[in-house]
Design a protein that fits this description.
alpha+beta; eight-stranded mixed beta sheet; 40 helices; Nucleoporin_Nup160; nucleus; Nucleoporin Nup120/160-domain-containing protein; WD repeat
């Protein structure tokens, strides 16, 4: 067999290691000896290369692993990676969960070394006395770097930006490296290091605590050799050296250690276990430097003549693992890579005196691991040992080029057959998604299909996409760096690939769309293959790590990391469909029959079936189940293309007339997609970190696709079986309720489709905004985002439900199974996690993504609040008509009072807006007015303000406030869009005089400025005419430019004339006449008629207006400028004398009475009022301005003088003053 059939019990969840944003990476320049380390953050997070070599150097790690701290937990797991040819050591947290009180550690620290570091000389330690992380590294210049990092370095940028690493970075050049070459580094603790040398010896470094005070070396060195000093000195003599192995630029003696592990087994002493090149294991006493045990790693006696055949390759460093047990004991696992490879298990006991006992756990048994395939060449690259409750587990990682496989073996330490459980497999998450060909009947454009496939969340890194695009452009010969400026990667991709295809014409002269589609599809396929080739390199496995505390298994790759989780029951059936367990044998047969049946469909039939399903999922139907099934059968029409062979296969699997299919069988199927516990509804013991949430999202993506594939095939199979049998007594619905099964399948698929959309739709959210704050208890109050704040991409599932991910309080299950249970509960139809579409839409609206919220409308419920939120979605999309329709539809439901209202809106509604809901139609429509007003949709503000006013019930103070506000909004909106009649109506309805006066001024000014003079004059302004007149008078007095600007004088003149106030109209014309004369308009003679000027025309208007007044009332007052005509000082005495004389005559003739006396008394009253009004208007600082009494005759005389003046000017007849005459004589 090419592939060994292992039972699949585990699955991977592969994650990208691409930084979410540039601010997530902190670049630290590690200074060489004698200089100061500094940090900077200007380096980009991910630099795409123009070629494949640069891409590999900058993005793909050459060595990587995970270190777990023992003494502190925030962060606990640290992923380290070697990048850029060894010059960069990248560190980040890979914790899945954390305590509620701990904060996340999202930062990535990139340590830049001046010289490349040795990949196998990197170590980390966790001091017990203080919370810190020590990083040790030896570079190729044999300098030892010691870097102390605090947890804050992984949590806050400010912890590094201040140059703190200057004191935290120590560089030491060990004298022992002058004549010995380091090969491996092992960390005993934060104060003690072990370096294995090329000659088989070890160099122990002990921290010098007095280094800072005495200015001495930071480390104290001690050298220990395998065979003592005598043997070492003989090795320096030519022709007396032991056998060596060439590795790099040095010769390693066969006693040199290539793999190391350190433990203290709970005692006071530390022990170093080394696997050497001579195929032997040596146990060193770290304290004394003595070798306590030496033996073959397989515990066999071999012929000394065969030593060369048993020599281990020096590049192998993963040959020994230790699992600590009770105090003084540990389990040591060694691996021999010679031949087919073999494991050996050792039980080691130690005491405080420093002696140990090493024993073979299974002397009569050998464990030769099985490779994934018997035909291909597979190499066991790494292994890990995890201690479980039922015994230790051995995990192995096999590699074939860049492909890898992971296997697990549970050890039976108590029985006689320790390896009887057999190897179990892990389903690797590197399946290439299928590419569906495009056809002329596709509902989705070919480019959009490819973009969805390429930009699937977590599939490719940005560096991979940019590098592939640059390589593709270079292949076309069109590469230009400037062509990408200002474009997103998707836009640049469409631009480049679109330029390779042209729409030509057929031989008949028509457009050749088929050729265009075919050529476009070919170019996208080429680019897709290039992407897959680059991405394949990212998935090269580098190490396999087991979490000693949580039991989590990690596969660390070049540019990604994979978390291993346990399979659900349905996963196990699917991946082991050919050999299911007896318990699930019948349901596996049903699943296999459905998958095989749908697999025979052509692309067109598959599209028709999915289209029919979409109608079932999203369209409300009042039809019974039988009619719905018939409708699906007719729409899908798969019966037209299935062959007799396809039908026979179903019959062979399920029996004649499908007798195997029973209600119990479908119950077993639904039990497989039902969560076994309500873990997601419990209180969380530990909250998931950002990485933990991404693991869950990736697992949900894979689980949703698997469940969808199975349930969709079961739905199609159910329809086929229902209508395939002709005998009425043998049909399915005669044996059980087929409609109920159909309905349950549709409901399950509806939730899966909803969840799939959430898990595959990405958006950018603020990096500083906590996910917990968006949906937690404090979500009622909205928060503001800063415009320059950096964003990170997250899926809708992570952003909306990520705060619910964590370890439940009541269970202590391992992470491998806890993640699976959580994912299964999310995907189950009866999940404890309710997907509230309206809440998701609220959150998306808060994130300013109404386009994504719109895509959720098919999943929305029909309750009033859901309908209201749909209206908010259309409102955000500027579709005001549709939004108004939804708002009116939800009005009754959201206006009714309710006792308990859950105020959850992800911050979309504040407390003030919540108070307006469920408190009557008036308040509800007032709320709609507010949100339309924020959009400046004034016509809709008017509509809903009228509705609110319509439902206001007078009698309460709240109603008065609401009415006042609605009238104000109605007036403002009507004024904004020049609906002045509505604004006038709202103005008259206002009861607040101060507010009414302010809005009256606003209305008058708006109408005048917009040129609506005739409409202003036509409005009645009941009870407000005097105030309108006063406003216009003030505006006339404030006019500076009488020619340009708003013609307030003409407007006021028209206003007074329309209200039969001719003398008032004449008075304002006189004011304009005076300002025209001061502006020199009288000297601007027209071209056609010299006598036609602004001033003469104003005189005519003035005379005409005053002519409409009875002769006895034909007078006005003229303001006198004494600076221009001082002889007129006191010139207003004629008016006062005339009034006094008229009053005396009225007193004398009062007894006589008569018509003349009454007319003169009315004239006296008008003149007194007229004079008083002008005194009040023109007076300033309590003083009365000087005025001149003008009659109609005076105005006609002035008009004639003005004409004479113009004629004199035309005839060059100028009058001279005495000063002018003296100038002429001189």
């Amino acid at each position: 067999m090419a592939t060994r059939d292992l039972e699949i019990l585990y699955k991977e969840a592969r994650l990208n290691l691409e930084p979410p944003s540039s601010s997530s990476v902190v670049h630290i320049r590690v200074a060489p000896q004698g200089s100061v380390a500094r940090s900077h953050s200007t380096r980009p997070t991910s630099i795409p290369g123009d070629d494949e070599k640069t891409y590999r150097t900058r993005n793909l790690a050459t060595a990587a692993s995970v270190y777990y701290r023992k003494n502190h937990s925030s962060p606990r797991g640290i992923l380290w990676r070697v990048l850029e040819n060894g010059n960069v050591l990248s560190l980040r947290s890979v914790d899945i969960s954390q305590q509620q009180k701990d904060s996340d550690a999202p930062l990535i620290l990139n340590l830049h070394f001046p010289s490349p570091v040795r990949p196998h000389c990197i170590g980390l330690s966790d001091p017990a006395d203080h919370d810190a992380l020590y990083v040790y590294a030896i570079d190729h210049t044999n300098q030892l770097y010691t870097i102390a990092l605090r947890p804050d370095h992984f949590k806050r940028r400010s912890a590094t930006d201040g140059g703190v690493l200057g004191e935290a970075c120590k560089v030491y050049s060990p004298p022992g490296f002058g004549f010995k070459h380091p090969h491996r580094l092992a960390v005993v603790n934060s104060d003690q290091l072990i370096v294995t040398m090329h000659d088989g010896g070890i160099l122990r470094f002990d921290r010098n605590r007095a280094h800072d005070a005495l200015n001495t070396a930071p480390w104290k060195e001690t050298i220990y050799n395998v065979a003592g000093w005598g043997q070492s000195l003989r090795g320096l003599v030519p022709f007396q050296r032991p056998s060596t192995v060439r590795y790099g630029n040095m010769n390693l003696e066969v006693t040199a250690a290539t793999s190391t592990a350190v433990t203290n087994m709970g005692t006071n002493n530390a022990y170093l276990f080394t696997v050497c090149l001579d195929h032997r294991i040596r146990v060193w006493d770290v304290r004394s430097g003595q070798i306590l045990y030496t033996g073959d790693i397989l515990n066999v006696n071999r012929d000394p003549q065969d030593d060369n055949r048993w020599t281990i390759e020096p590049s192998l460093s993963n040959l020994v693992r230790i699992v600590d047990g009770v105090r003084g004991q540990c389990l040591v696992v060694t691996y021999s890579p010679i031949g087919a490879g073999e494991f050996k298990f050792w039980k080691v006991k130690a005491n405080d005196q420093g002696s140990i006992h090493v024993a073979d756990c299974f002397p009569d048994a050998s464990l030769i691991p099985q490779s994934p395939s018997s035909l291909d060449v597979w190499t066991l690259a790494d292994f890990a040992v995890a201690q479980q409750t039922n015994g230790p587990e051995l995990w192995t990682m096999w590699k074939n080029n860049t492909t890898y496989r992971v296997q697990r073996l549970l050890l039976n330490t108590r029985g006689t057959a320790p390896f009887s459980d057999g190897w179990k497999g892990v389903s690797v998450d590197n399946v290439i998604p299928p590419v569906q060909t495009s056809g002329p009947c596709d509902s989705v454009d070919s480019t959009e299909k490819w973009l969805r496939l390429i930009f699937f969340p977590g599939r490719f890194s940005r560096a991979t996409l940019e590098t592939a695009l640059a390589m593709y452009e270079k292949g076309l010969g069109t590469y230009k760096e400037s062509s990408k400026a200002g474009k997103s990667i998707a836009e640049a991709m469409c631009s480049v690939l679109g330029s390779t295809t042209t729409l030509d014409r057929t031989s008949a002269g028509g457009l050749d769309y088929e050729q265009f589609r075919s050529t476009n599809e070919t170019q996208w396929m080429r680019f897709w293959r290039l992407l897959l080739e680059l991405d394949r390199q990212r998935g090269e496995a580098l190490s396999l790590v087991a979490d000693p505390e949580d039991g989590m298994i990690w596969v660390v790759c070049a540019d990604c990391i994979a978390a291993v989780r346990q399979c659900s029951d349905l996963d196990r059936i699917y991946h082991n469909i050919q050999s299911p367990g007896k318990k699930h044998e019948t349901v596996a047969t049903l699943i296999s029959a459905g998958l095989n049946f749908v697999e025979s469909f052509s692309d067109s039939i598959l599209q028709l079936s999915k289209a029919a399903l979409r109608a079932e999922l999203y369209e409300d139907s009042a039809l019974p189940d039988e009619a719905r099934m018939q409708q699906f059968y007719d729409r899908a029409s798969f019966w037209r293309q299935i062959t007799e062979e396809d039908c026979v296969q179903v019959v062979e699997a399920l029996g004649q007339n499908f007798r195997m299919v029973t209600p119990r069988l479908y119950e077993d199927l639904f039990d497989l997609i039902t969560a076994g516990s309500d873990a997601n509804s419990q209180e969380l013991r530990e909250q998931f970190t950002g990485l933990g949430r991404k693991v869950v999202v990736r697992a949900v993506q894979e689980t949703v696709n698997l469940h969808w594939q199975i349930l969709f095939s079961q739905l199609v199979l159910l329809i086929h079986m229902e209508y395939e049998v002709d005998n009425d007594d043998e049909v399915l619905h005669a044996r059980f309720d087929v409609g109920s099964v159909y309905r349950r399948l549709v409901d399950a698929l509806r939730r899966l489709d909803h969840l799939r959309w959430m898990a595959t739709t990405e958006l950018s959210v603020s990096q500083s905004r906590s996910l917990r704050s968006s949906f937690g208890p404090g979500s009622a109050s909205p928060t503001r985002q800063r415009g320059n704040e950096e964003t990170v991409p997250v899926t809708v599932l992570e952003g909306s439900t990520g705060h619910l991910f964590g370890l439940p309080e009541t269970t202590n299950m391992p992470l491998l199974s806890s993640i699976t249970d959580m994912v299964l509960d999310l995907c189950a139809p009866s999940s404890s996690t309710v997907l509230q579409t309206w809440l998701l839409q609220c959150w998306l609206l808060k994130q300013d993504r109404p386009d994504l919220a719109m895509e959720l409308n098919p999943y929305a419920d029909q309750d009033p609040f859901s309908t209201y939120i749909q209206g908010r979605v259309f409102l955000a999309l500027k579709d005001y008509d549709t939004a108004a329709l939804y708002f009116r539809k939800s009005a009754i439901g959201l206006s009714m009072s309710m006792k308990h209202v859950e105020r959850h809106s992800a911050g979309l509604l504040d407390d003030t807006e919540w108070n307006l809901l469920n408190s009557g139609l008036a308040n509800y429509y007032a709320h709609i007015v507010n949100i339309y007003d924020r959009q400046k949709a004034y016509s809709y503000v008017m509509d809903f303000a009228r509705l609110s006013l319509q439902f206001i019930h007078a009698g309460s103070a709240e109603a008065v406030v609401t009415k006042t506000e609605m009238l104000s909004r109605l007036f403002t909106a009507a004024t904004a869009i020049s609906h002045f009649d509505t604004a006038h109506t709202a103005l008259l309805a206002m009861e607040d005089e101060a507010l009414q006066k302010a809005y009256l001024r606003k209305l008058v000014e708006k109408m005048c400025e917009s040129g609506q003079n005739s409409e202003l004059i036509s409005l009645p302004f009941s009870g407000l005419q005097t105030k309108v007149d006063d406003i216009l008078v003030e505006k006339c007095k404030a006019v500076k430019d009488i020619i340009n600007g708003v013609p307030y004088h003409q407007i006021l003149y028209s206003w007074r004339i329309s209200h039969n106030d001719y003398r008032g109209g004449a008075a304002i014309l006189l004011d304009r006449l005076q300002k025209l004369r001061r502006a020199g308009e009288g000297d601007k003679i027209g071209a056609d008629d010299a006598l036609d000027t602004q001033v003469t025309r104003q005189y005519l208007l003035l005379i005409n207006a005053l002519s409409c007044v009875p002769a006895k009332e034909a007078y006005i007052l003229e303001d006198v400028d004494l600076s221009e005509d001082p002889d007129l000082e006191g010139g207003d005495d004629d008016l006062e004398e005339y009034l006094d004389d008229l009053l005396k005559r009225l007193d004398v003739d009062s007894k006589a009475g008569g018509r003349q006396a009454e007319d003169e008394r009315a004239l006296l009253n008008k003149m007194t009022h007229f004079a008083a009004r002008f005194q009040s208007q023109d007076g300033s600082n309590g003083e009365t301005a000087k005025r001149k009494f003008l009659t109609l005759a005076d105005l006609r005389k002035q008009y004639q003088l003005e004409l004479d003046r113009i004629v004199a000017i035309q005839n060059n007849q100028f009058g001279f003053t005495d000063e002018d005459a003296m100038d002429v004589v001189g």
